[in-house]
Design goal:
Elements lengths: L15 H47 L3 E10 L2 E10 L10 E10 L5 E2 L2 E10 L2 E4 L19 E18 L2 E18 L4 E15 L5 E12 L2 E11 L2 E10 L5 E11 H9 L6 E13 L2 E15 L2 E13 L2 E11 L2 E9 L6 E11 H9 L6 E13 L8 E10 L5 E2 L1 E9 L2 E10 L3 E9 L4 E10 L2 H14 L11 E13 L2 E15 L2 E12 L3 E11 L2 E10 L8 E12 H8 L3 E16 L2 E15 L1
Parallel strand pairs: 5-7, 6-7, 20-22
Antiparallel strand pairs: 1-2, 2-3, 3-5, 3-6, 4-5, 7-8, 8-9, 9-10, 10-11, 11-12, 12-13, 13-14, 14-15, 15-16, 16-17, 17-18, 18-19, 19-20, 20-21, 21-23, 23-24, 24-25, 25-26, 26-27, 27-28, 28-29, 29-30, 30-31, 31-32, 32-33, 33-34
Length: about 625
C-alpha cells in the first residue's frame, strides 16, 4: 500500500557452535565467581581455622588441652601472629604449663617446606612462661610429649627471639631472654616422650636472670626424655672460647644436672658472665672440669690454666689453679702464677657479700711496688725491690681499705731505672686499723726504720728513725712517695746535704707531718750552704715550724725560731721568724730571701720578720760591716 514502510528482513538464526561458546563462557564466569567467593570465605575463616588446627596439633603433641586466643595474618610483611597460646597444666585449675602472650612467625617463601624442613625467617615469642612443679610423692607435672615413633621434622629459624621469658620451677622464677641467629635442628620421636636429634645455633645473645647477656653459640646431639635433657658431642662457642660438653639435666622440681666441660676458654668472658670477681680477670685459658646445675644456680669446678692473663690490672704471663664457683662464691686453690717479675702460690676466696674476701699468698721475687700498688691501691713511687714472703689478708668486697690480716716480706734490691730498695716489712691490720710492726728500708742514700699505727681514716702515728747521706735524693724520693700515696701536688722541701731524723710521722698518710729532732751536715737550703744544723720542730710538704734551729759555720752562729713556707716564691712564701745571729755572712740572707740589698760581711744582732720572703716586714737591730740599699 502506498505510504507504508516495508517490514525488515528476518534475522539470521544463531549457529549451534556460537550458542555453545556463549554457554561455556557463562559457566566459566559463574565458576570463577564461585572460586572468588570460596577464596573470600576461606580467607575470612582462615584465622579461626588456623587457631583450631594449631590447638589440635599442639594438643596431640603435649597430650594436654591447648587453647589459642587468636591467629592473625599480615601481608606486608607476610607473617602470622598468634596471641594467648596456652598449654594446660595437669588439672583444669592449675596454671598453664606453657603460656606465650604473643608469637610472631615470619616464613621464608623460597623454602617454606624444603626437604621436610620448616624454614622461618623469624620466630619471636613474647613473655613465654614455662611452669614445672615437683610432687612430694615423686614425679612432676611435665606433660608427655610426642606421638608415634619414627616420625621427624627438621626446622631452621634464621632468628629466634625470646623476650621477657621465664622458667617457674617450684615457684622459683628464673628470667630468660635470648636472641639467637641460625637456629637449626632436627628432632625425631623415639616413642613415648622421647625426642632425639641435633640442635645448633650461631652465636647470639643469651641471658639468665640478672647475669649480663652472654654472646654464645652451640651445637649438640640432644635427647628429650620427659623431664630428662641429655646432651652429647656438644660445643659451646663464644669469644675466645670453645668448650666441649656432655651431660644430663633433670627438669624435676629444682632442675639438677651435671655436665663435663673441657677446652679453650676466654677468662674475660668467664669473669663477666660466671665468676664475676670484680677484678677484671683476663687471659687465654684452658679448662677441664664440670658444671653442676642446682635450680637457677650454676656451680663450676675444675682445673684452669693458661697464659697472657691479667688480674686487677696486673699482668700474669702464666697461671694454673683449681677453680670452684658455687653458692659459697669463687675459690681459686693452689694458684701458681708468674706475675710482677716473680712467682707466687695463692689461695683466693671471693664469697658473696657481705662475707669478706680472703687472700693467702706465698711470694718469691715479686716486684714489691707492684704488690703494694695492688693491695693498697697506691700509685707508682719508682722503687725497685723484689719481695719474698707471705701475705694473708681479708677485706669486705669493694672496700679494700678496710682490710685485716698480716704481711711479712723480705725486700731485695732490683737493678733497673728505679731507686733500689731493700729491707724488711712486717705489717698487720684489723678492720682497716693498721699497725706497722717493722719497716726497715734502705736505699743507696737513705735508711729508715718505721713502726706504729695507721687508722682507717689514714691518720698515721709512726715512730721514725732515718739517716741519709744525700738529703736532696731523700727529698726527691719523699716527694715521689707522697704523690704515690695520693698527694698529687706534693713538692720538694729543697734541702741538700746529709743528716738524720728521729721523731714521729703524724697527720694523714697522704700528707705526712714530721715532728721531732734532726741534725745535718753541709745543709743546703734556698741556694745557701748553712753548715751544721741542729733542729727540733715540725715539717710537712708546705712549711717548716722551728722550735729551735741552730746553724753553725766557720765560727758564725744562727738561732731561728718560727715558721717559713716552702712554696713558690712570691705566692706561697710566708714567714714569721725570730732570729739571733753572730758574725753570719749577710750575703747568705740576700741570696736565700732574694732581697734587693747590697750587703757584705758578718752580721750580728736580732731581727723579727713576718709577711713573705718576697715582701718581708719586721724590725731588726743589726751590726753590719758595710752595706748599701737600692
Amino acid at each position: 500500500m502506498a505510504g507504508e514502510t516495508p517490514d525488515p528482513p528476518p534475522a539470521a538464526e544463531a549457529t549451534p557452535a556460537t550458542a555453545l561458546r556463549r554457554l561455556r563462557w557463562r559457566r566459566l564466569r559463574a565458576f570463577l565467581l564461585f572460586l572468588v567467593f570460596l577464596a573470600l570465605v576461606a580467607f575470612w575463616q582462615l584465622p579461626a581455622l588456623s587457631a583450631r588446627a594449631l590447638a589440635d596439633a599442639l594438643g596431640r603433641f603435649f597430650h594436654r588441652a591447648v587453647t589459642v586466643g587468636e591467629v592473625r595474618y599480615h601481608l606486608a610483611p607476610l607473617e602470622a601472629e598468634i596471641l594467648d597460646l596456652r598449654v594446660a597444666g595437669p588439672t583444669p585449675e592449675a596454671p598453664p604449663f606453657l603460656h606465650v602472650a604473643r608469637a610472631r612467625l615470619v616464613p621464608s617463601l623460597r623454602s617454606l617446606w624444603s626437604g621436610g624442613t620448616i624454614v622461618l625467617r623469624q620466630l619471636r615469642l613474647e613473655r613465654p612462661v614455662v611452669r614445672i612443679h615437683a610432687y612430694p610423692q615423686g614425679g612432676d607435672d611435665i606433660p608427655k610429649m610426642g606421638g608415634g615413633t619414627g616420625g621427624g621434622m627438621g626446622f631452621r629459624i634464621q632468628r629466634l627471639v625470646l623476650a621477657d621469658g621465664a622458667f617457674v620451677l617450684d615457684h622459683e622464677r628464673v628470667p630468660l631472654d635470648l636472641d639467637l641467629p641460625d637456629f637449626d635442628g632436627r628432632l625425631f620421636n623415639q616413642g613415648g616422650r622421647v625426642l632425639e636429634g641435633r640442635l645448633s645455633f650461631a652465636p647470639g645473645r643469651l641471658q639468665f636472670g640478672s647475669l649480663p647477656p652472654l654472646p654464645v653459640g652451640t651445637e649438640l646431639l640432644l635427647t628429650l626424655d620427659g623431664p630428662r635433657v641429655r646432651a652429647r658431642e656438644g660445643h659451646l662457642r663464644a669469644h675466645g672460647t670453645d668448650l666441649a660438653y656432655q651431660g644430663e639435666l633433670l627438669l624435676r622440681g629444682r632442675p639438677t644436672g651435671t655436665f663435663s666441660l673441657h677446652g679453650r676458654i676466654d677468662l674475660e668472658m668467664l669473669d663477666t658472665h660466671v665468676t664475676r670477681t670484680g677484678f677484671g680477670m683476663k687471659g687465654d685459658g684452658s679448662f677441664d672440669g664440670s658444671l653442676k646445675v642446682e635450680g637457677s644456680r650454676l656451680d663450676i669446678e675444675g682445673r684452669l690454666s693458661g697464659v697472657a692473663g691479667e688480674f686487677d690490672g696486673v699482668p700474669i704471663p702464666t697461671f694454673d689453679t683449681w677453680l670452684t664457683r658455687d653458692a659459697r662464691g669463687l675459690r681459686l686453690r693452689d694458684l701458681e702464677l708468674a706475675a710482677l717479675d716473680g712467682r707466687g702460690r695463692l689461695d683466693l676466696e671471693l664469697p658473696p657479700a657481705p662475707a669478706p674476701a680472703h687472700l693467702r699468698a706465698d711470694l718469691e721475687g715479686v716486684d714489691a711496688e707492684g704488690l703494694w700498688r695492688t693491695v693498697f691501691d697506691w700509685g707508682e713511687a719508682g722503687l725497685a725491690a723484689a719481695a719474698t714472703g707471705r701475705v694473708d689478708i681479708n677485706w669486705p668486697r669493694g672496700r679494700i681499705r678496710q682490710l685485716s690480716g698480716t704481711i711479712a716480706l723480705d725486700l731485695a734490691e732490683r737493678q733497673d731505672r728505679r731507686t733500689p730498695l731493700s729491707g724488711r716489712f712486717e705489717w698487720q691490720a684489723q678492720g682497716g686499723d693498721q699497725r706497722v710492726e717493722l719497716a726497715d728500708l734502705r736505699t743507696p742514700h737513705t735508711r729508715a726504720r718505721l713502726s706504729g699505727r695507721i687508722d682507717p681514716q689514714d691518720r698515721s702515728d709512726l715512730q721514725v728513725e732515718a739517716h741519709s747521706v744525700d738529703l736532696a735524693a731523700a727529698d726527691e724520693l719523699s716527694q715521689r712517695l707522697r704523690r704515690a700515696l695520693g698527694t698529687a701536688e706534693a713538692q720538694k722541701a729543697g734541702f741538700s746535704g746529709s743528716g738524720s731524723f728521729r721523731g714521729k710521722w703524724v697527720g694523714r698518710l697522704q700528707a705526712p707531718l714530721y715532728e721531732g729532732r734532726a741534725t745535718a751536715r753541709d745543709l743546703g737550703y734556698l741556694g745557701v750552704d748553712w753548715g751544721q744544723a741542729e733542729w727540733s720542730g715540725s715539717a710537712d710538704a708546705w712549711q717548716v715550724q722551728s722550735r729551735s734551729l741552730v746553724l753553725r759555720r766557720d765560727g758564725a752562729e744562727l738561732w731561728v725560731d718560727g715558721r717559713i713556707e716552702l712554696g713558690e716564691y712570691g705566692r706561697e712564701d710566708g714567714l714569721e721568724l725570730q732570729v739571733r745571729l753572730r758574725d753570719w755572712p749577710a750575703e747568705d740572707f740576700v741570696r736565700a730571701f732574694q732581697w734587693q740589698l747590697d750587703v757584705r760581711g758578718g752580721v750580728s744582732g736580732e731581727l723579727e720578720v713576718h709577711g713573705r720572703r718576697s715582701a718581708p716586714l719586721g724590725r731588726l737591730r743589726l751590726g753590719l760591716a758595710r752595706g748599701r740599699y737600692y
